[in-house]
């Protein structure tokens, strides 16, 4: 048994489509310790959401499948568990909140019942107890008048309120791991900050580990201890959050950071990374970022770089860093 | 809610008025002269002329229409000349049979179609799904008169499993005491098991025959709305809670998928009333359907008009009921 709460190794998730098999996640390794917050950053389509759905074992049936790898949660491999055993973990020890609070709640069921549902199922508590629990949870996520809100329906609440409800729902069984897939993307900026604060408070209170999926580097800076940067289904860089912002190693990460607006530099055009995420059915033969890379070399188009550790725990998938390292070593 | 119901009832008046006008005109342009029908082909002209005057058919058409509407407002549906009773009396005798047939058909259709639709959607592309799709295609295409005749041929003539397609109960049994007018329910209430068996045996074939079209359409609707609901975000949320897939479907998907299916069911009611006319004729079912067929053949205006009007009224009321049920199951819909 390892000390890690969640350990993903060599995860490969595939989708069967009309055009062929898409490898949405291609050999990913992740580690999350108890109480830690790990961020996964990347553009849309880089495979970060698919990674989270793979961990939850919620891939769309028949089209999506985990082709290889292990997902060890508290030492046990979820990939090889029965549906029944997975249900025992899911929603109980490991919970998830989604991007769209507007559509992620059932429109015809009262808030109270939805919040307490997983507790009633996993903890086998009664109706009365469940109602008290949902009131307590709603109060905990900062909803005023929770006694009334439990009797209301989702359409009667605002987006921010609904996301609070989603968090209450996810936290009701006191999970050890909370997966948050773009939890603030659909919300107003002021509400975003409130939701992030709330998540951090709950995390400190309950000691929950958080896997934060986001494309927003602001959220990463705010919330995360360590960060994994994904590109086209692979990890391209992994390090602690300070190092990432201070000395990013991968050209893609550098590009992401450059595209953030800086107050000090006046109002110039924002930098952007030219080109688009490659089509997963026609991946470049070498480095997947090569077609968009500003410092690309011939080697990059011919062979694919490995993910290598550069300094203390800092990993990067780039030939340039590899060469630097070799130069220093020799 | 009350205000909304009153408003909807008020909106029914113009459409019912339209129906009154249309059926009045349509039944007048039907071939056949009711006076001749009553007097017989050989009657001489003065007799026919007298009958015509008695029935008010010598009046100009607009006068006939006004006197019809005035009587209608007095609750008088007119006289059915081919039976010699008032239409109201004939309806009172025959409507329970039609209601029993229609309700039982809806019951069969719903009990079969909704589970089939759910299974087809949750096991999409499975053998069960393909079979259900083939059957619902067939069910939606097969005409009632053909199916009815095949049922009688197979289950009565060849297999002898079902009683002769005549009436609601065997001729040697007394109908159960009239409480609701529905034999199945009345015989259960009075504990008359023989009557129950016999009326069920008489009811089952015409009811299945009448239900097939509705069954097919409801099953297809249920399948497609279920598929749509299963793809929604809140179903993923429900799955993320780790609850059993059965609960995901029954608690989270079913109610949401029932909403569009209910609309279709309400609209199907009109089809069922039309289908009842054919089914009753084939199975000699003593309901209003067969009665209306006879009335059309006898060029008897009053029952035709009354049946159309009552059907339209029922249809509107059923669809109002459907809308009210919406508000009950979907909290997003509130009626002002």
UniProtKB/TrEMBL annotation, chain A:
SMART domains: AAA. It holds the Pfam family ABC_tran. It is a peripheral membrane protein. One of its GO terms (molecular function) is ATP binding. The keyword Lipoprotein does not apply. Residues 6-257 form the ABC transporter domain. It is found in: Cell membrane. SUPFAM superfamilies: P-loop containing nucleoside triphosphate hydrolases. InterPro entries: AAA+_ATPase (IPR003593), ABC_Ni/Peptide_Import (IPR050388), ABC_transporter-like_ATP-bd (IPR003439), ABC_transporter-like_CS (IPR017871), Oligopep_ABC_C (IPR013563), P-loop_NTPase (IPR027417). Its main location: membrane. Keywords: ATP-binding, Cell membrane, Membrane, Nucleotide-binding, Transport. NCBIfam families: oligo_HPY. Belongs to the ABC transporter superfamily. This is Peptide ABC transporter ATP-binding protein. It comes from Saccharibacillus endophyticus. The gene is oppD.
Automatic annotation (TrEMBL), chain B:
The keyword Transmembrane applies. Keywords: Cell membrane, Membrane, Transmembrane, Transmembrane helix, Transport. It is found in: Cell membrane. Residues 95-326 form the ABC transmembrane type-1 domain. It is a multi-pass membrane protein. CDD domains: TM_PBP2 (cd06261). InterPro entries: BPD_transp_1_N, MetI-like, MetI-like_sf. Pfam families: BPD_transp_1 (PF00528), BPD_transp_1_N (PF19300). Belongs to the binding-protein-dependent transport system permease family. This is ABC transporter permease. It comes from Saccharibacillus endophyticus. The lineage of its organism: Bacteria, Bacillati, Bacillota, Bacilli, Bacillales.
